[in-house]
Write a structure and sequence with these properties.
Elements lengths: L9 H20 L7 H14 L13 H13 L4 H8 L3 H4 L4 H8 L1 H12 L11 H11 L5 H16 L6 H21 L3 H15 L1 H13 L1 H22 L3 E7 L2 H11 L10 E7 L4 H18 L8 E2 L12 E6 L5 E8 H9 L2 H6 L5 H18 L5 H13 L2 E5 L5 E5 L4 H8 L1 H5 L1 E6 L2 E3 L11 E5 L16 H32 L6 H11 L4 H9 L8 H12 L2 H11 L25 E3 L1 E2 L2 E2 L2 E2 L11 E5 L5 E5 L3 H9 L4 E6 L6 E10 L4 H12 L3 E10 L2 E10 L2 H12 L4 E7 L1
Parallel strand pairs: 2-5, 11-17, 14-16
Antiparallel strand pairs: 1-2, 3-4, 4-5, 6-7, 8-9, 8-10, 12-13, 15-16, 15-17, 18-20, 18-21, 19-20
Helix pairs in contact: 1-3, 2-4, 3-4, 3-9, 4-7, 6-7, 7-9, 9-11, 10-11, 10-19, 10-27, 11-12, 12-14, 13-15, 18-22, 19-22, 19-27, 20-22, 22-24, 23-25
Length: 750
């Protein structure tokens, strides 16, 4: 990709850099932090000198990046002088000859610790198969327990990288956008950085699906005037009422993010025009007395419900019980004058700052150790649990972590009235492990609201739960199937591994003794052959079953293993080859080795083509992409390119865990046909299936491979598998199907 060209003289460039720094300084001076300008200016001069002559890929001087990161940390997250200095210096140790000791000598211990924490995140190895990203996330989260500002500055760094991602090569864009969406956006959400989380999601979506992003942006702009009129009709009566009450407030329409709109369109299979909840109303009131915030929230709620009909199941009180990330607000949903539901969010100015800037804003309002902060510490303790016992596989580690990052919460109570926050969908067993590992290990059942329930019972907000235990209970592998908390799963796996170990060691002794007595070597060939005979995946499982007495090594194995060893000898292999090799070959000729697969450059766009010898790619079964879809390539362990849709959940994990193996791709035109799955639903009537198949086969000339149709009462569901050239054909098919009388929806299933 070509770099942006800067036609600036050195003087103009210097002026641009100085103006950027003065803008950062002005924002800091306007904040509530103590004014430590001198140390910030020193950090700026140090960083500028260290990065002298270095440029970013876009062509601009490198120092513009640390200044931008410091500005985000200061003005968008609300951090102070120590963090601003660390942000200005965050790349100095990694990219220049300066060390952490140099930073410590010039700026003291605290700034040096933050810079060291940020530098540590930039490298490492995770397990045998290196997955740099997984190790980076692990290091990133480990630093939380030391100083959460490291993570907040890293968030600022990631946000600026996403804002300037356009200058990167396509495969790098996919990697960075993928890991941002998979890890950094949910982490920002968990830390209460709502504004940053929303922007990270939108920017990731923009770089992965530029055409869809532009299309939705254009439609939002076109509908802006109509939306403003609808909002005015809805908001004016509320404003009049609040003015009457003498409340000082600010009322705005908060537009749904483009990423959220797209997700809703995909999930509900709706066009943009049928997404009615494009905005929510936000009321932010001024209140200097924290004790009065709750009563003002409910008085505003009362005023709104006097005007509009409230949705009984969509009122959320996050004031009494804040979310784990510290979020507080009162949400209600009411029927607007146009007949559509509108969400209204009521917050004080303090609540709004915490909602937008997260825990950094707590420091501004902190009065001792508050509930929100102890909630944060509880969450960080959970994260530390996961990090202390990481999964052996990078992808398993990221998935376990994801469980904890994305979860929305419920609140349950112990018999003593203690409040416990858990993810939605949590079971009795999750709660037991949340209370203590030993309680989880020996949990047999629970009393929920005084009623006896089993371990797998799903808890609801407000439940009172008493966990019942027994000394004779032991943890079982199947427990993992009904657990949703990362903490519970991590501790269960650790306990199961510990419980298995004596049996594994016993089984290993049995195996080694048997091999020695049978005079059979203990090598990979032998062990793999035994594993195949007993259908076990690895040596540990084989040893466990031997130790537990589930299998036994009989004499019948001896001859089988000796034959396998004999066949593997070089002379034997040659004699076997000579029997099947073509007679026309010379006796002394060596069989030709299979040509090594051509190395694939991740820096170039890989053309997806189908030739006489087959395709130079394989389609991932998880998402079954077809030409026309936004896709990416992943270089699999066998060296072949596996194609995933960019939105595929498995692709999100691959981008986050194995970014160096992601490649940008483009479809070459081909006469090949690809399988697509279409789901059609509607009101059943005589002859509708015949009409559908006739339209597809005869009018559109599309080959139907399979049909599965079922009618329940007056409603029918039809799954079709068709062979098509590209996604445009699928879109055309769905459009024609929806025109048939009785058909309510026709969508492609990925």
């Amino acid at each position: 990709m070509e770099k942006a060209v800067y036609n600036l003289t050195p003087e103009q460039e210097d002026r641009m850099v100085d103006e950027a720094f003065q803008d950062l300084l002005a924002g800091y001076l306007a904040s509530n932090h103590r004014k430590k300008v001198e140390i910030i200016e020193r950090a700026y001069r140090f960083a500028r000198q260290a990065h002298q002559g270095i440029r970013r890929r876009s062509g601009e001087p490198y120092i513009m990046h640390p200044i931008a990161v410091a500005k985000i940390a200061s003005q968008e997250i609300g951090l102070g002088s120590t963090s601003i200095c660390a942000a200005l210096l965050h790349d100095v140790v990694e990219d220049t000859d300066y060390s952490v000791d140099d930073i410590r000598q010039h700026f003291g211990d605290k700034i040096a610790q933050l810079v060291e924490g940020l530098t540590k995140i930039s490298g490492g190895i995770f397990g045998d198969k290196a997955s740099l990203q997984a190790e980076n996330f692990r290091k990133l989260l480990l630093t939380m327990s030391e100083d959460i500002r490291v993570v907040l500055i890293k968030m600022a760094d990631r946000l600026h990288n996403m804002r300037t991602l356009g200058s990167m090569a396509p495969n790098k864009r996919y990697k960075i956008a993928g890991e941002t969406l998979y890890i950094y956006a949910p982490l920002a959400h968990r830390l209460g950085l709502f504004a940053i989380k929303t922007e990270l999601e939108d920017l990731s979506f923009k770089h992965e699906h530029p055409d869809i992003y532009e299309n939705i942006s254009r439609k939002i702009a076109v509908s802006a005037r109509h939306r403003a009129e609808v909002f005015t009709d809805f908001a004016e009566p509320i404003k009049a009422k609040l003015d009457e009450m003498g409340i000082k407030y600010e009322a705005t329409a908060r537009l749904k993010s483009i990423y959220s709109i797209h997700n809703k369109m995909e999930k509900k299979h709706l066009p943009f025009e049928e997404i009615y909840d494009l905005y929510a109303m936000r009321i932010i009131f001024e209140c200097d007395d924290r004790d009065k915030e709750k009563s003002i929230c409910w008085s505003i709620y009362s005023a709104i419900t006097d005007l509009y009909r409230v949705h009984p199941e969509r009122t959320r009180d996050w004031i009494v019980t804040p979310k784990v990330n510290g979020y507080q607000a009162l949400h209600l949903t009411v029927m607007g004058p146009d007949g559509n539901w509108v969400e209204v969010q009521i917050r004080s100015r303090r609540m709004d700052e915490i909602a937008e800037k997260g825990f950094a804003a707590h420091w501004k309002y902190k009065i001792g150790e508050g509930d929100e902060e102890s909630e944060l510490n509880a969450w960080l303790k959970t994260i530390k649990d996961i990090l202390d016992n990481p999964e052996p596989s990078a992808i398993d580690f990221l998935n376990t972590l994801k469980l904890n990052l994305f979860a929305s919460e419920i609140v349950v109570f112990t018999p003593a009235g203690e409040l416990i926050t858990l993810p939605t969908g949590a079971t009795v067993l999750d709660l037991a492990f949340a209370l203590h590992t030993e309680i989880g290990m020996h949990c047999i059942a629970a009393k929920v609201n005084h009623k006896l329930v089993p371990l797998q019972h799903e808890l609801s907000s407000g439940d009172q739960v008493e966990v019942l235990t027994s000394k004779t209970q032991v943890p079982l592998p199947e427990w993992e199937n009904f657990m949703v908390t990362a903490k519970g799963r991590t501790r269960l796996r650790k306990a199961l591994r510990a419980a298995r170990q004596p049996m594994v060691l016993k089984g290993n002794e049995i195996l080694c003794r048997w091999l020695e007595d049978s005079k059979i070597p203990d090598n990979n060939l032998v062990i793999t052959k035994i594993q195949g005979i007993y259908h076990v995946g690895n040596r540990d499982d084989l040893c466990y079953q031997l130790g537990a007495g589930e299998i036994a090594l009989g004499d019948f194995l001896v001859n089988t293993l000796r034959r396998a060893l004999e066949s593997a000898k070089p002379g034997r292999a040659t004699s076997l080859l000579s029997r099947i090799w073509p007679l026309s070959r010379k006796k002394d000729a060596e069989p030709e080795a299979e040509p090594a697969p051509e190395p694939i450059s991740t820096k170039q766009i890989y053309s997806l083509r189908v030739g006489p010898d087959g395709a130079n790619f394989k389609l991932a079964p998880c998402c079954s992409p077809i030409p026309g879809d936004d896709v990416m390539g992943f270089i699999a362990d066998d060296g072949k390119v596996e194609i995933h849709s960019l939105d595929c959940p498995e692709a999100q994990v691959l981008k986050a865990a194995y970014g160096s193996r992601i490649i940008a791709t483009e479809w070459e035109s081909t006469d090949e046909r690809f399988l697509a799955h279409i789901r059609i639903e509607g009101i059943d009537r005589r002859g509708i299936l015949q009409e559908l198949t006739q339209m597809i086969s005869t009018h559109l000339g599309i080959d139907i491979r399979k049909v599965d149709i079922e009618a329940t009462g007056a409603v029918f569901h039809c799954d079709l598998w068709v062979r098509v050239a590209d996604s445009d054909v699928v879109h055309d098919l769905c459009t024609h199907a929806r025109k048939i009388h009785g058909v309510q929806s026709a969508v492609r299933v990925n």
